[in-house]
Structure of ABC-type transporter, integral membrane subunit:
Amino acid sequence: MSLAASSPGAQGKSGRPFPFPVELLGLLGLGLLWWLLTLPAVTGNPFLEQFSPGAALPALTRLLAEGTLWEHLLVSLKRVMVGLGLAFVIGAPLGLLVGSSRLLERATEPAFQLLRMISPLSWMPLAVMVLGVGDAPIYLLLALAGLWPILFAAAGGVKNLNASWLDLGRSLSATRGEMFWHITLPGILGSLLQGVRLAIGTLWILLVPCEMLGVRAGLGYFILDTRDRLAYPELMATVVLIGLLGYLLDAAARWLVGRFQGNT
């Protein structure tokens, strides 16, 4: 449930909802702040006008209409999906194991917490030396970034399973496979999806610096390209697009989590 829907500010004094989405107020305020911070009369710097909404939004419309950004956008989305898939394939089973064994959890927690605190970007030079320039090191760095939210979410979900569900399964002589598919997996799915949502946000934030590893496509690469061409309205347009896409990805993940939790 969103804060706007649950808070008194989302309704008028009569209890009826406002006739417009209150979420728009925040976006309008952000747009106004953006405009003010690039206004020469406010900043005294005419150069910043190239990053203004009046310059960036037409550039974004043009780049999308020309198809210039579509290739970079699709390449970036592919990298995020591959990185997320690798993180899930590794993190979910490992999290299930850790959450199922108190001894294994105690043995691995210090090492996992230490590794989690190392920025994936710290591994960038080593990844390039081992895997070379291209998509492979990007996949590795994104997978490392998404691994920990998924692993800890899976482990936490197993630890917080309702004990009565497990007792019921044992009383019915359920096999290990039946316990997993009918009790454990449905019981941890909400936590696991929350971990996936956190992983998506982490991967999307990390994507741009990862795409500055010498690849020839992607939104991060395009930002460097616009900088080198001094095409600052296009640079700001790409930044806006990254924000919009990140918002949509998170909204899709929130919808998925809410849909599952609403059915449980």
In short: The radius of gyration is 23 Å. Residues 1-10 have pLDDT under 50 and may be disordered. The first helix runs from residue 3 to 6.
